[in-house]
Every structure is written in structure tokens, then in C-alpha cells.
């Protein structure tokens, strides 16, 4: 029985979950949710996810929202011995958890310093720009000389960050020029994942189309 994933293409968390499912080679039924038409606000959808957000996962009757919780659940259930989310090494798992939580800070920084001009038609506040640079400097330090975000093995933290950073396609990723470790990791790792382009390949074009529609 396939897993149902309620999904929106422009949602980085949705794409992070879909990439995790593909990494685990799980059978998934992707159900597109039209946010502009309010399909996430229907009574039927709210029964699955009272937060009315995407993504939402339904696995054998079990509904779960919040992308990072979904990713942790999927690996814990279907690949419990995988390095994707270490279950037998508490310190490694805690480090992955830390990076997953920090990804939220990165997402907010991108929203407030980059996407705000598209979403609200205003220039970002100087404090937002400063916060963006500070957050990315920390991420650059976390990565350092590692091959992956959390060390030398691919984890769900990599998958989550890959999806989050695609929002920077709006400016052709020029914001990454000041953060060489992040930039090198971002463009190198996506080439390793055979499903990256399938899931994210159209995102740069879609983001720019979305930005143009807001002008």
C-alpha cells in the first residue's frame, strides 16, 4: 500500500519529504494540494492536518505533518539502521536534529531577507539582511570541510537544507558567493542525488514566474 503525500511543488518542506521518500525508495502516491484554491482548508484536509499545511503524510492511516518530523519518522520506520538518521548513536542523531532545527532559522532568514520583496513588495530591513548573513555564516562553519552537512555521510539534514536553499534561485544563488562551504556543498551534493532534478529541476523557473506574477 503506497504512502500518501499531500504536496505543493513550491513548498520546500514538501520537496524535502518527497526526496526522503525517493532516497528510501518507498512507494508514494503524491497528491497535489492547490493552496491558491484553498484545498488545504477543506474539512476533509483539516481532518488529516489541523495545521492546514503541506506536506502531510498518511502512512497506513497514520497522518503526520511537519516535514522534519515526517523525515525522522520515515527513516526510523523504514531504514532504522541507515546513516540518514542515526538511531544507534545518540550524539550523531542529536547533531542531525540540531541541524534540522537550525534549518528553520535558515528558512526564516531567506524569507525575511530575500523572499519578502516578492511576497510583500518591500525591501528587506537591514536587520534581516544582517541576520541572513549571520545565519549563513554559522551554516558555513557547521559544514566546514565536511562532505555533508552533518559529517561525512548523507543525512536527512542534507535533504532538508537542499530543499530550503532552492528559494535562492530567485537571484541565481548569488547570495551563496560569500559562503564558500555552503555553496560548494549545495552544488556538489545535488549532483549525487539522482532524484534531485526530478523533484527540484523546475523550481528556479517557477520561483521566477511567481516573482513576476507579484509585480
Task: Write a structural description.
By secondary structure, the chain is of the alpha+beta class. Strand 3 (56-59) and strand 4 (62-65) form a beta hairpin. Helix 1 packs parallel to helix 3 (67-78), helix 4 (90-120) runs antiparallel to helix 5 (126-143) and helix 5 (126-143) crosses helix 7 (180-192). It has two domains: 3-78, Glutaredoxin, CATH 3.40.30; 90-213, Glutathione S-transferase Yfyf (Class Pi), Chain A, domain 2 (Up-down Bundle), CATH 1.20.1050. It is globular. It has a four-stranded mixed sheet, covered by helices on one side. The model has no long low-confidence stretch (mean pLDDT 95). It has nine helices and four strands. The N and C termini lie far apart (44 Å). It holds the Pfam family GST_C. Residues 89-210 form the GST C-terminal domain. Homodimer. InterPro entries: Glutathione-S-Trfase_C-like, Glutathione-S-Trfase_C_sf, Glutathione_S-Trfase, Glutathione_S-Trfase_N, GST_C, Thioredoxin-like_sf. This is Glutathione S-transferase.
Amino acid at each position: 500500500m503506497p504512502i500518501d503525500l499531500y504536496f505543493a511543488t513550491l513548498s520546500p518542506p514538501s520537496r524535502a519529504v518527497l526526496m526522503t521518500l525517493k532516497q528510501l525508495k518507498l512507494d508514494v502516491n503524491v497528491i497535489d494540494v492547490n493552496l491558491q484554491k484553498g484545498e488545504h482548508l477543506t474539512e476533509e484536509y483539516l481532518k488529516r492536518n489541523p495545521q492546514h499545511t503541506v506536506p502531510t503524510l498518511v502512512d497506513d492511516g497514520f497522518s503526520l505533518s511537519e516535514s522534519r518530523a515526517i523525515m525522522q519518522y520515515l527513516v526510523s520506520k523504514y531504514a532504522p539502521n541507515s546513516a540518514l538518521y542515526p538511531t544507534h548513536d545518540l550524539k550523531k542523531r542529536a547533531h542531525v536534529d540540531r541541524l534540522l532545527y537550525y534549518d528553520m532559522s535558515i528558512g526564516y532568514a531567506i524569507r525575511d531577507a530575500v523572499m519578502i520583496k516578492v511576497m510583500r513588495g518591500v525591501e528587506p530591513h537591514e536587520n534581516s539582511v544582517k541576520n541572513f548573513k549571520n545565519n549563513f555564516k554559522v551554516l558555513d562553519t557547521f559544514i566546514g570541510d565536511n562532505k555533508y552537512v552533518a559529517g561525512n555521510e548523507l543525512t536527512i539534514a542534507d535533504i532538508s537544507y537542499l530543499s530550503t536553499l532552492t528559494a535562492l534561485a530567485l537571484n541565481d544563488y548569488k547570495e551563496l558567493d560569500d559562503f564558500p562551504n555552503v555553496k560548494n556543498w549545495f552544488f556538489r551534493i545535488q549532483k549525487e542525488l539522482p532524484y534531485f532534478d526530478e523533484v527540484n529541476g523546475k523550481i528556479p523557473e517557477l520561483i521566477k514566474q511567481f516573482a513576476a506574477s507579484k509585480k
